[in-house]
Amino acid sequence: MIGQTTRRLIGAAALALMGTAGAALAYPDGPVTYVIPFNAGGESDVTARYQQQRFRDLTGQDLIIQYLPGAGGAQAWSGLNGINGDGQTIMGTNLPHIVLQPMLQDPGYATEDITNVYMFHFTPDALMVRNDSPYQSVQDVIDAAKAMPGGVTAGGSATNSANHVANQIFMNETGVETTYIPYTGTGATETALVGGEVDVLWGYTTVAVRQEDSTRVLAVATEERHPLFPDVPTFKELGIDMVGGAYRGIAVPASTPEEVRTELSDIIGKINGDPSFREQMEKDGYALIDVPYAEMDAFMAERIEAYTAIAEQLRAQQ
Amino acid sequence: MAIAVLVPFTFVMDPASGLIMLGAIYTGAIYGGAFAAILVNTPGTPSAIATTFDGYPMAKRGDGDLAVTLATIASVFGGLVGAILLITLSPKLATLALAFQSTEYFWLALLGLTLIATLSQGNLVKGLIGGMFGIFLSMIGVAVIGGDVRFTAGLPSMLGGIDIVAALIGLYCLPVLIGMVATPDQHLEPAEARGFRLFEAIGISLKNWFNLIRSSLIGTLVGILPGAGGSIASLIAYAEAKRASKNSDNFGKGEPGGILATESSNNATVGGGFIPTLVLGIPGTPPDAVIMGALMVQGIRVGPSLFQSGDDTVYVFMTGLVVATLLMLPVGLIVGRYAFRFITNVPKAMLVPLIAFMTIIGSFAIHANPHDVVVMVVLGIVGWAAGRAGFGASPIVLGLVLGQIAEQGFMRAWMIGGARGDFLGQLLVNRPISWGILALILLTMMLPLFRMRAARRAAAGEIAREGAVAGPVQIDRAGLIGSAVFLALAVWMLIQASGLSVMAAAFPYAIGAALAVLSLLQILRSLRGQGGTNAEGGSAEGTVRGFVLAATMLGWAVIFPHLGLFATSLIACVLLMLTGQFGRLTMPRLAAYLVSLFVMVTLFYVTLDRVLNVPLPPALLF
């Protein structure tokens, strides 16, 4: 840590010599560690890798990705505020995870403990089947589930997760009953669907892109049709009021100063504005959103409200 | 995972060289795990667990150089088989990943668990208790199925469960350290310089040619299974090698065939694991996932089309993997030779702090989480105490590694079977692959039973000839106390399980009940004098030095996040140096020791902080 202090002193001396205020140089000061609360290979990891190179181009500092998986992300989030709040360590955050986990159990943190700085993309829910599935449409799934309540198995990643929520909303909206089968991570759900262990899968558009050779998408939970799947209807078109998915962003420890939060928010915003970044993300099925630090409170309040009712239902099943 | 840190370097390299680098590091790391397993009895990854079974006994008796050379040959052979199958048969073999469903994973985990029976020859009941305890450890944290929080005792830091690598380091290495300071003897038998013993090793390998081929194939095929393959493959290869071998009684006592089996199979999983990663876009292990991420950043889309697209990058990558595997031969032989010489010749007063420091850093660097270090030390002490009572570490580790795979596989089969109204069909009846695995399980289980019966008959015959010796019954006190503790744990498990949802409680009920019955049985057996110690159980006695060592390690783990890694480590290393020093310490020698310790701690610290950029906790000092 001595090295860092020395470097800071040299930096300060240089600034004084130049006689500039140098606010733009204040952050980041040295390499930034980006903690991903999940294992490598998932959406959180891949998008962080996409940001990594551009962060360096933009700030001249390295963005170092570290994985701290466990308890569906809670392992990392419960330790977030114990990290130094100098902006040199930042953490990925996910919705609905950080809202649902504290509502349904005691994960060692509260939703308010997490200082979100920027929400940069979301992955819309998608209902998928494998290529040779008898289900050609959402209506086929509904009919099958009506004929045999609980007989249709729907795979998804983890319990009380975005996929679990999607299944719950689908059951609420259509009045049918499916059996939700949780897996560890998205990769395992893909094997389960393609290998025929589950009948349908709650995934994201990103999963659908990755597995487009062996699966079909029945519907996507967006307002308008997804540009990569122009022939696939939205749930709304089918009369099912379902728009949602998993949102991903970046958070900092609560002790982080306001200026650093804003600076970081600006940097992530600039990366989001990079046309090559947008193209890379959209080609993979991600939908970019821009919720900067200034608008975070309103956004979170709206999401919390949306998830509260679902949390009640999930709790009732426990 | 050093590999994850190095990914950004590949962005600026051209795609092929970057990928070759990552592949080489991955395969090298799997092979490198053999060194620690053989020389210090500590598997750095689950895939090296079985290497300790025979590697460490060989090193103890002075054959460490031969063991390392054997491991090198086996790793290169296995790595090549895996890589060649990856290049030639990928698209066909990938279907295997899809044919294995939750049910098969459950049976596969059971097959791995049957190895407990093999490993606990001294006392099967104690081995089974250890296995149940391991499964209990695997259930700590948030349940994947049901979503309940289980057995965390209210500690948020336990929500993520017990990290397997941290547990491996603690359970295997701490008892070794405590044993090292218990006696003034050298850690390993000193051996004269004998070169690489390459020809001797080649001879043994040739004699084991069928073992090598079988193990490499098991490694590749099981390695294809996403999630489970890497850790299970070497266990299954080991069990099969033991079953088929003429010297099967020597397995676990330093049989070269055991090392050949595990090391060839675990390096074969590297090629195997890439098969579903590249063909299906489903990464088998975390390093596979890192490499898949790096591929995606380079704009290469993995999937079936990769092999038809005519993009050369993927073939360049595979060829690079072959070259990297071949390079392990010269590099491994030279490094291995010096590592062995170093470990045998370095004085204990230096070896103890060095190994201790590596366990601390190793468990910390996994996730840069100080909590893992505490888990490592605590489990190490538990493992040592269990070893004193005759409960070996390996059954516990097997339970820990395989418990989650078994539980989730079974629970999913239950849920899916329930939804389809045909539970037995889902679990076994309609699943031919499961029949095959079940047959293997039965075969593995029957063999030791037959042998045991034969041995018992022989022993009975002897007694009949010489007349029964009615000695006084020796109560196995340590085993008695240990079983009582496990019984208490079982009761606590059952009470806790009653507050969980059905899906999350089913396995705790089953395991808790089994643990309770087994503990009761062992209490009775201990009272009747049937102690017995698992093959590799039997920790060193608890000496004052051992106590100081354990206390120092515990203090180290607890204090370093607050005081700073460098300062705490320096103090702890000096304490451990004094603990490991037997006999008088002369002034010049003390000075030399202190200087070496300072250099060592500085080197590790700088590597961690500057080269690997592992974020250290904010602390008082540094």
Can you say what the CATH homologous superfamily of the largest domain in chain A is?
Bordetella uptake gene, domain 1
Strand content of chain B: under 5%
Number of strands of chain A: 10
Tell me about the largest β-sheet of chain A.
10 strands, mixed
Radius of gyration of chain B: 24 Å
Task: Count structural domains of chain B.
Answer: 1
Return Rg of chain A in Å.
Answer: 21 Å
Can you list the strand order of the major beta sheet of chain B? 1-2
Per the CATH scheme, the topology name of the largest domain in chain A is D-Maltodextrin-Binding Protein, domain 2
Describe the structure.
Chain A: Pfam families: TctC (PF03401). Chain A: Residues 1-26 form the signal peptide. Chain A: This is C4-dicarboxylate ABC transporter substrate-binding protein. The complex is a heterodimer of chains A (318) and B (622). Chain A has 318 residues and is an alpha/beta fold. Helix content of chain A is 42%, strand content 21%. Chain A has two domains: 2-14 and 29-121 and 246-317, 3-Layer(aba) Sandwich (D-Maltodextrin-Binding Protein, domain 2), CATH 3.40.190; 124-220, Periplasmic binding protein-like II (D-Maltodextrin-Binding Protein, domain 2). Chain A has eleven helices and ten strands. In chain A, strands 1, 2, 3, 4, 5, 6, 7, 8, 9 and 10 form a ten-stranded mixed sheet that branches. Chain B contains 24 helices and two strands. Chain B has helices spanning 2-12, 15-40, 49-60, 64-99, 102-113, 115-119, 124-139, 164-182, 198-207, 209-223, 229-244, 256-280, 286-297, 313-345, 348-365, 370-388, 393-420, 423-429, 432-466, 477-497, 502-527, 544-563, 565-580, 587-611; strands spanning 141-142, 149-150. The longest helix of chain B has 36 residues, at 64-99. The model of chain B has no long low-confidence stretch (mean pLDDT 85). Chains A and B meet through helix 2, strand 2, strand 6 and helix 7 of A and helix 1, helix 4, strand 1, helix 13 and helix 17 of B.
